[in-house]
Amino acid sequence: xxSFCMIGSLILGIGAWISAFxxxxxxxxxxxxxxxxxxxxxxxxxxxLLEIKYLAGIGDFSAIDDTIHAVVLAASVLVGVAVILNAAxxxxxxxxx
Length: 97
Known about the structure:
Elements: H1 2-25, H2 30-57, H3 61-96
Helix pairs in contact: 1-2, 1-3, 2-3
């Protein structure tokens, strides 16, 4: 369960950034790419929460304690970069109109 959540979260997070970048370079419907980017970002964070829930369920609180700081940092970077890229996509789309 843990490896599925970690790998899935990583893939979805990278997908969120790729989708946001595609929104920047896209000439058609950049807002659709932004919506997809935020959805992938949310799913990535959800997998992290499910992993923490699983670890708490099996009573592995030391694993949560060991990894929570890295999870918070990674989630902050994921959301921060996604917001910046999506804002750039929206600004660029407005300039084209």
